Amino acid sequence: WTPHTRMRWAGAIVLVLAFLLRVFTKQGWYIVTYALGIYHLNLFIAFLTPKIDPALDLDDDGGPELPTRSNEEFRPFIRRLPEFKFWYAISKSTVIGIVCTFFDAFNVPVFWPILVMYFITLFCITMKRQIKVGSFTWRRFLLHSIATKHAATLST
Hints:
By secondary structure, this protein is mainly alpha-helical.
């Protein structure tokens, strides 16, 4: 747990919105925007991915198993990229992106719709792969909540 989580993220969102507003009003720096978007996507994937990938655990039948040693009883979800480092990296990279918009050397002329389509394609492929692997926390949460509701209906 880290203090002032909501205020930190509100500040990060304001930074991202300020960057997007500057890019929109100046009509340029699409390469910087694309690079920043790819970097933020990479950070988001690292934030949602566990430090120890459960897909790499070798089990015989693919189903749940009982622990065989005492150290296997409880394994909490540990993120590959903690929340504070995620926030810090997003904030720092957005500030760097804003600074880049003040220099014409980074304003490379490109056809921006192609970058948008490529980013959307990359996002969909990456998310499909991550969901297929099943390493996201919300999947575990969803399965746990369904099992809890099912157990509650059986007990009544």
